[in-house]
Model the fold of this input.
Amino acid sequence: TPDPILAEAFARRIVPVVVINDDSNALPLADALIAGDLPVAEVTLRTPAALASIAAMSTRADLLVGAGTVLNVAQATAAMDAGARFLVSPGLSRDVVAAARERGVPVIPGAVTPTEIMAALDMGLGLLKFFPAGIYGGVAALKALGSVFGGVSFVPTGGVSPGNLAEFLAVPSVAAVGGSWMVPASAVDAGDFDTITQLCATAVAQAAN
Ligand code: 3PG
Done:
């Protein structure tokens, strides 16, 4: 991918999808991700603590923080105001894409059907989230879509796990995968950051193979 922010986000080909319920956990989580050699986070806008967490994490120069579960322009704007360096959306919204582009922030919208992918191509997008990947056909679907949409790269998310990570990463059209398995919300809530560091390190090593 030519965008420098996304190149950094995808350096290990894994994007941790995080849910933070208490923004006091944001900086320790940032430290845990950095210690696990996975210095990137897609903070989902699913909790009241998400924006404050993005703001806190964006102060860390050695971590790249983005926002996930961006459903509309208001959320996109709030996330960018908080310091999100990239946006991820489960679906394709022309308005969200425009809001991100206005500020030069890379956006990865979701698309899973040929019609959605063609709509994304019409918007000039070549990098798409594929969510929920397991439900929408997983590796087999990505291979079939890849043979039709040669110029499109995907970030499958939703159902990616240590058990199928290698299979997803082996698909030529897959730029990176997203997933929450290395950042369990229960571990974040419990302040069990050593576990998160360990899970990240394991995932990074697995993706490098
Ligand atoms: C997402 O927002 O991309 C998903 O919630 C991540 O899916 P997972 O929990 O199955 O990894």
Notes: The chain has a mean pLDDT of 97. Residues 17, 44, 68-69, 131, 157-160, 178-181 surround 3-phosphoglyceric acid (CB under 6 Å). The beta strands are 14-18, 40-44, 64-68, 87-88, 107-108, 127-130, 153-156, 177-179. The chain has one domain: 4-208.
